[in-house]
Request: fold
Amino acid sequence: MTDPAAPSAEPVSAFDQFHSTKRYIADDGLMADVNCAIALGRPLLVRGEPGTGKTMLAHAVAEALGKPMLSWHVKSTTQAKEGLYTYDVVQRLNDSRFGDATGGGNAVSDIRRYIRPGVLGQAFQAPRQVVLLIDEIDKADIEFPNDLLRELDEMAFHIPELDETVRATHRPITIITSNAEKELPDAFLRRCVFHFIAFPDRERIGRIVRAHLPDLAPALVEAAVGRFYDLRRVQGLRKKPSTSELLDWLLVLARAGVPPEEIARRMPFLGVLVKQEQDLELLASKKGWEA
Amino acid sequence: MFDLLLLNLRAQGLKVGLSEWLAFLDGLRKGLAGDLDGLYRFGRAVLVHSETQFDQWDLAFQATFAGVQLEPELSEKLKRWIEDALRDAPPPEGERVPVDMTPEELRRELMERLAKQKERHDGGSYWVGTGGTSPFGSGGRSEGGIRVGDSGGGRSAVQVAGERRWADYRVDQQLQTRDMQVALRALRNLAKEGPLAVHLDKTIEATARNAGDIDLVEERERRNRVHVVLLMDTGGSMAPHARLVEQLFTAASQNKGFKTFQALQFHNAPYGWLYKDYATWTRVAISELLKTWTPAHRLVWVGDASMAPYELFQPWGSGAWDGSGHSHMSGLDWMVAIRQHCPASVWLNPDPERYWRHPTVQAIGRVFPMFPLTLGGLNDAIKRLRAGG
Reply:
């Protein structure tokens, strides 16, 4: 279709583009890694606890760079090929038998009408560079990442039905997220720039809270965030509460008008933060964590 | 210099491949790593693929660049410090340091010794702050011995590396869930019993034969019809292996290929009952289970098989009358009965093979083919299961 987009085809000035947006607070390391992935033309693999903003990152990158975004949400049944294209052979068979009302004439003989690009295919064919999010890649079959190796490496794939090769006009900025600890094959990992989002520290979570809930009373935020970190330190907790749960909790506390002093004594609306039954039982047996 | 980094990384067990290394060099050429801090961050992003390996990266980075960074500070501060130390405190006995060493020689000696200390700790334990028999006194250097020249200002990349913040994330585990999943995948018995789906090739052929009039041919998808039962020993001597067993459970329960998957628990040996959850005492009678299990069921037992002999050989081995009416059978009798019903059974033992000479391990090993719970053992066990036990 067009010339292959080699990584070096990106202008070097493309480097150092990404910065925090209004709603997304990235630390320096994350920004640097995003820009490094852009400059090298490699996918960025982002891993971290649930709720540390992995998926949000892709949105923020797209927003900051002013580029359109395409997301591919991977499910347990997702096949690698679906991301490239699908050939709707049943529709074609149906049209050949029962006629085609819209295409008229010999539309059925045009195989192109039954080839639909997947998300990856769309990203390759886009007229301008896009941000491509492959979300929760670890959800799919364990061989899934391996099936995409060549496509992500060369940013090209072949459609045998058309005997055509689709090449990326503009190498998409690819961001891949994963929750799992050790699920992805080595060969795949080797091709990615890796970033681990550690859980934000108190200073940064303060900024995140202010960015999302600017109207909350600082005293309430201070008290609640303190308790939140204490809760994360409780030994034996199966699922530590995450940022999004903290934001929910703050909102509930504010709406219910809970005074900051009360949060120090007990945990109102604990269910917003802790959702596993075993964890609730564990906390119920500890002093100061009663709901 | 960068070759040294590569060697240090590989010495830390980080398998840096050619493709990443070229990407790393490419990035350096493009100026992605401006200074040492940039190099630390950029190198880690490209060469390391898991937070569990950040610690090894820190160690390798430190080993490569620590001396480089500290050189100017060392020669200044350390000279003065060592001179003071020499004047105030003579070296203790048994040290090979001659008193007439120049400060420069002493510095080298110190650096060498620090390097040695680092190597000794690569095994995975934490570094200790004080370096043992150093003639240089106790003050002045923090853990790892690298922040010798720490003087105001921002922290350098080497210092950040020296903090070893990622040590807790490190996993020096041989067998990973992914490896287990790949091994378990071999456990299959494909048969055409899935839902009906249009078979395209056959439909096209039939349609052509039918002079273009569509003749749909449907066939069932191939499905794995293997039934897997995982039986896990819990508590007691199995506690040190809990994480490994949990990984195996995760790997097996996430395998979507099995037609059915059951996980049951027991303590030491089965005595009439197996537990869905040992902690809450949710149990099922073995006689009930055997009604649903067929010889085609694949049983995977996991346990160290070590217990007091009476717990395995005596009918009252469970320690109490359990009301099941089966008290005439010992734990071993139950195992034999289950094996007779489901011949395709294997036993995975998390203990190293050198501990297998225990009498109860030997006895169980005669009932079930026993394999170590390692990747090789798991693969062998699955081969055995595929062959029918």
Observations:
- The interface with chain B takes residues 12, 15, 29, 32-33, 36-37, 39-40, 42, 45, 47, 76, 89-90, 93, 96-97, 141-142, 181-186, 189-196, 198 of chain A (CB under 8 Å).
- The CA atoms of residues 122 and 177 of chain A lie 19 Å apart.
- Chain A has 14 helices and nine strands.
